[in-house]
Automatic annotation (TrEMBL):
Organism of this sequence: Cupriavidus cauae
Organism placement in taxonomy: Bacteria, Pseudomonadati, Pseudomonadota, Betaproteobacteria, Burkholderiales
InterPro entries reported in the protein's UniProt record: DXP_reductoisomerase, DXP_reductoisomerase_C, DXP_reductoisomerase_N, DXPR_C, DXPR_C_sf, NAD(P)-bd_dom_sf
Encoding gene per record: dxr
EC assignment: 1.1.1.267
Domain 1-deoxy-D-xylulose 5-phosphate reductoisomerase N-terminal: 4-132
Protein name (record): 1-deoxy-D-xylulose 5-phosphate reductoisomerase
């Protein structure tokens, strides 16, 4: 019986994880569940799964949850705050931790799980983007087992097991597929009036709002490029991005002998989650079988970096190294949140990130403190840019920012980067 802690149990990945666990009561017990603000939902989950411990964001949320659980007769111990999150992530009573908090808030608890030698199911890609070297060192030093849950990385993992170095030597490229999000074919001139709901309406996947906006800008794929770099030890020039609108091929590994291995399936996160939970076994995930005849055509195309400057910015940050990926991530979190709050336009996101990358800290990422300091500085700078840009003049700023920063990046740096990186495909990118 595996004992599982789910960090971010009330989110989209949390829902899918608990759905897989629910199907296998003989294999899995829930040790702890965490949430930030959604107390009602967490109370329901505690009533169903009876975890020993639960963690929420604030003292008042904890008091509310305690009262709900008392009335329901559920004996779960309730804690709150960052220290409690890290403590529960490292708790010796659990052997497996699903890291599914969104954003930088997931870094410390995910790292705590790695340092406690857990089987870490990593959905929280931002943790790895921010502190890749530190995180991978912690996994090695403490004998943790890291299993990627992000569908692309899970696909690559299935095609390239980490634990056999003989595979590594023969890898020519890892190929990340991307759906292209809801605006893949939309006229770029019409993008500045996009509402948060439109940006979150992903054609193939149902996800949390932050990652949905990231998919619409393709920053999600940019973060995943950095994630792949750390997980698979792949240099930027061996990571290729291909748009695959059907989201059936979840990613591929191209080998030196010309073989390309791909993992296919319906777009449903329960598949990679079940793989991570049961690894190396396979269990029912509740996912309907893939019908390739019904899927029909599987198409692939090169991403247009003019349309998706955030993808270019992420390649820039990966090449810059040091804290640049943490700066990229922090600026993006503030920009996306500001867009979701209506403070900036969709088209301002790339401009804010580009400015913060240009003007933000550039030191080495040699300690967690150095990373967190860069994260804080980048957030402050991004907030200043958002406030200076404000809703009223957002359009003008967006044009200026994206034109001068991200636009150039996309056209020059990233055009070159991705061209180099992505070999034949992205090399053929034709910024429109
Ligand atoms: P959601 O927004 O749906 O859920 C986020 C979870 O994190 C919730 O449980 C939320 O609690 C909790 N949370 C939010 N802020 C904090 C905080 N400051 N401290 C502690 N907990 C917090 O996100 P997703 O499930 O979509 O994504 C989770 C992670 O998985 C992200 O890193 C994402 O990139 C990654 N991922 C997601 C995929 C998907 O299909 N959704 C696919 C691949 C990767 P509350 O509900 O109480 O606010
Ligand atoms: Mg993904």
């Amino acid at each position: 019986m595996r004992r599982i802690t789910v960090l971010g149990a009330t989110g989209s990945i949390g829902d899918s994880t608990l759905d897989v666990i629910r199907r296998h009561p003989e294999r899995y017990a829930v040790h702890a569940l965490t949430a930030h603000r959604q107390i009602d939902k967490l109370a329901d989950r505690c009533a169903e799964f009876r975890p020993a411990r639960a963690v929420v964001g604030s003292e008042s949320a904890a008091a509310e949850l305690r009262e709900r659980l008392r009335v329901a007769g559920v004996g779960t111990e309730v804690l709150h705050g960052d220290a409690a999150l890290a403590e529960v992530a490292a708790d010796g009573e659990a052997d497996t931790v699903m890291a599914a908090i969104v954003g930088a808030a997931g870094l410390r608890p995910t790292l705590a799980a790695a340092r406690a030698g857990k089987r870490v199911l990593l959905a929280n890609k931002e943790a790895l983007v921010m502190s890749g070297a530190i995180f991978m060192d912690a996994v090695r030093e403490h004998g943790a087992t890291l299993l990627p849950i992000d569908s692309e990385h899970n696909a690559i993992f299935q095609c390239l097991p980490f634990d056999d170095p003989r595979y590594r030597a023969g890898v020519a490229r890892v190929v990340l597929t991307a759906s292209g999000g809801p605006f893949r074919t939309r006229d770029p001139a019409s993008l500045h009036d996009i509402s948060p709901d439109e940006a979150c309406a992903h054609p193939n996947w149902v996800m949390g709002r932050k990652i949905s906006v990231d998919s619409a800008t393709m920053m999600n794929k940019g973060l995943e490029v950095i994630e792949a770099h750390w997980l698979f030890g792949a240099p930027a020039e061996r990571i290729e991005v291909l748009i695959h609108p059907q989201s059936i091929v979840h990613s591929m590994v191209a080998y030196a002998d010309g073989s390309v291995l791909a993992q296919l399936g319906n777009p449903d996160m329960r598949t990679p989650i079940a793989y991570g939970l049961a690894y190396p076994e396979r269990i029912d995930a509740g996912v309907s079988p893939l019908d390739l005849v019904a899927a029909g055509t599987l198409a692939f195309e090169t991403p247009d970096l003019q349309r998706f400057p955030c993808l270019a910015l992420a390649f820039d940050a990966l090449r810059a190294g040091g804290v640049a990926p943490a700066v990229l991530n922090a600026a993006n979190e503030i920009a996306v949140d500001s867009f979701l709050q209506g403070a900036i336009r969709f088209t301002d996101i790339a401009g804010v990130v580009a400015r913060v990358l240009e003007q933000g800290p550039r030191h080495a990422a040699d300690s967690l403190d150095a990373v967190l300091q860069a994260d804080q500085q980048a957030r402050a700078l991004a907030r200043t840019l958002v406030q200076a840009g404000g809703r009223a003049s957002a359009g003008a700023r967006a044009g200026a920012n994206v034109g001068t920063s991200a636009g150039n990046n996309a056209g020059n740096n990233a055009g070159n980067n991705a061209g180099n990186n992505a070999g034949t495909n992205a090399g053929a990118a034709t910024p429109s």
